[in-house]
Amino acid sequence: MSGGEGITVDVILPMEKAGSERARRAAVARKLGISPSRIRDLRLVKESIDSRQKKILFQLRLLVGVDEQLPPERLPSRDYPPVRPGSPVALIIGFGPAGMFAALRCLELGIKPVVLERGKDVSSRRFDLAPILRRGTVMEDSNYCFGEGGAGTFSDGKLFTRATKRGPVREVYEIFVAHGAPREILTDAHPHIGSNLLPNVVKAIRESILRAGGEVHFNTRVEHLLRSADGRRIRGVACADGREFAADSVLLATGHSARDVYRMMLAEGLALEQKSFAVGVRIEHPQAFVDARQYHLNPEQKRPEQLPAARYSVTTTIQDRGVHSFCMCPGG
Question: Which of the four CATH numbers 3.40.50.300, 3.30.460.10, 3.40.190.10, 3.30.70.2700 does domain 7-66 have?
């Protein structure tokens, strides 16, 4: 009946029973119209919480093995093929999410990634954030926007999007899990890593790149593009410290805050296209306040242990504070 690959079944259970294997088997058996004894294996595929009503429900998508076990689950791997001598070289400018995943993709394609990041590594970068909060002093090349991991490393780490044109993102989640992110991001409806875990995940990704033969250079700010003799091809970059890097291709993964890069591109005569204007507003509340409203709790009532700290919809959790992040981008 299951064909060796399992059957996908969606069930809804009350909060009190959602974590029970017995309750899950009974619900699946009812849905399929079979005896629970025929269910040999269950595997969680997706989980979401419906807290719109007083009675909180868990919506579960389960992979079910009927009359036989499910095939072994493929575990995410952080092994990448080593760079071979003489492989083409790609310069990747910026080591935020785009730069990290570009470097990993280069390794998969047999290309040597050489990453140039204007900021510091994620461990050193942490110490440059305190002056922003205490004195309002911003380090130009090491702050919330610049440095290993990019802008999301110390600000949140949400992984979900309402956009439908980006294609499947399962592989992205698996790469994060392979590098230390919690496995729950593979099944949560609104996955979230969090700024307390992201620094170590980012470091692990860097280690994978280096272990396979790539390079990552910090405190290396690109100032100019190097062109071929006829000016038609980019052959490398020149940096603020005087070093030059040659490569077969150059990828700009600098994010939206590197205004000097846009000025450089404009001076170089490259075509630029303006994006729509976007602004965000951030409002913080005590976590208990957010929990009470998300889960319909009384002021003195403690959040049930089956429920995570409220962070669904527009709500997330940062350092025990409930945070509402509203995006006012066009169509957001």
Answer: 3.30.70.2700
Q: What is the pLDDT along the chain (332 residues), one digit of tens a residue?
A: 444 689 999 999 999 999 999 999 999 999 999 999 999 999 999 999 998 888 999 999 999 999 999 999 888 888 899 999 999 999 999 999 999 999 999 999 999 999 999 999 999 998 998 888 888 888 888 888 899 998 888 866 566 665 666 666 888 899 999 999 999 989 988 788 888 889 999 999 999 999 999 999 999 999 999 999 998 899 999 999 999 999 999 999 998 889 999 999 999 888 888 877 767 666 777 888 888 888 888 878 888 888 887 754 444 455 555 554 444 333 33
Distance (Å, whole) CA 236 – CA 226: 5
d(CA 179, CA 202): 8
**Tokens in use for 276?**
């729509």
pTM: 0.83
User: Which of helix, strand or coil describes residue 112?
Assistant: strand
* Region 89-267: CATH code: 3.50.50.60
Cβ pair 142, 169 in contact under 8 A: no
Q: How far apart are CA 233 and CA 261, in angstroms?
A: 18
